[in-house]
Design a protein that fits this description.
Radius of gyration: 20 Å
Structural class: alpha+beta
Helix content: 25-40%
Number of strands: 13
Order of helices and strands: EHEEHEHHEHEEHEEEEHEEHH
CATH superfamily of the largest domain: ATP-grasp fold, B domain
Distance between the termini: 12 Å
CATH class of the largest domain: Alpha Beta
Strand content: 25-35%
Shape: globular
Strand order of the largest sheet: 11-10-9-12-13
């Protein structure tokens, strides 16, 4: 069986290369010939529909290049995850629209009005409406971002105005701060609609729990509500596999984010569970 692992052309850090190799190793165990393809190796005219490529029947799409993913699907390649699911996870605002439709709880959230590079944010009238509903501190989070780098905490109006000015015309969210979950959440890895591992992420020095930002991790046993919530989030976004970040809410768990290509090296180190094993088992069963 032939397949591709499609990865970003410009992300070449050691931790990403480790993930790619973990996936490829599991493919080999299942007798799958998996070739790693960088996105810049798949350049072709839109009208050619990849006629000059020997396309595989399926590929693991470990990137967020939505246009490329859609084109490959139109050419007949089955993608894990599908383009629509990757798009819904990559845009955090879009994620919340899917969660809302499925009645899945998440923090109270406002979307920023659309701005343009030529004008930027030249009025903060919308912030008045947000302040009527949310108390400070308020989480301000760019729609696109990874590892918590584009997530900020505004302690007051002045703080919020500075953060918004720095973000510029890029789209962002203004969100309720869940104090009960400050500095800690649960990363839940879901494959094929089932939880395969979970860990507690915590950081006493930051409201963000991301490991890359200095957070720590330890094994964590989910309760029934957390497990059901993570699976529901994965299912409503039509994901084959994902990492779901679950917050500790005052009235029960809620979703923070859903990651279509989770960096599972940390959870492997923490739990001993290799997510790649379950991903490949899911893919093989899906091909039967």
């Amino acid at each position: 069986m032939k397949s591709w692992l499609i990865v970003n052309s410009f992300v070449n850090s050691e931790k990403f290369l480790e993930i790619y190799e973990l996936i490829r190793e599991q493919a080999v165990k299942h007798g799958i010939e998996m070739e790693i393809k960088r996105t810049d190796e798949l350049m072709c005219d839109v009208l050619s529909d990849f006629r000059d490529f020997d396309l595989p029947p399926f590929a693991i799409f470990w990137d967020k290049d939505i246009l490329l993913a859609r084109r490959l699907e139109e050419a007949g390649v089955r993608l894990f995850n599908p383009a629509s699911a990757i798009e819904a996870c990559d845009n955090k605002a879009l994620t919340y629209l899917y969660l809302k439709k499925a009645n899945i709880p998440f923090p109270k959230t406002f979307f920023s009005p659309k701005a343009f590079s030529g004008t930027g944010i030249n009025s903060l009238v919308f912030l008045d409406a947000v302040e009527k509903s949310l108390d400070y501190p308020i989480v301000i989070k760019e729609d696109y971002g990874s590892f918590g780098f584009q997530v900020h905490l505004a302690k007051d109006r002045k703080d919020a105005e500075k953060i918004i000015k720095d973000i510029g015309y890029r789209p962002f969210l203004l969100q309720e701060f869940i104090e009960e979950s400050s500095g800690h959440d649960v990363r839940v890895n879901v494959v094929g609609g089932k939880v395969v591992s979970s860990m507690l992420r915590y950081n006493p020095s930051d409201f963000r729990s991301n490991i890359t930002n200095g957070g720590s991790m330890k094994k964590y046993e989910l309760d029934e509500a957390q497990e059901a919530l993570a699976v529901a989030a994965s299912n409503c976004l039509d994901l084959d596999f994902c990492g779901v970040d679950v917050l500790f809410g005052k009235n029960g768990p809620m979703i923070c984010e859903v990651n279509s290509n989770p960096h599972f090296r940390s959870s492997l180190d923490c739990t001993g569970v290799n997510m790649a094993k379950f991903v490949l088992e899911h893919i093989v069963s899906s091909q039967r």
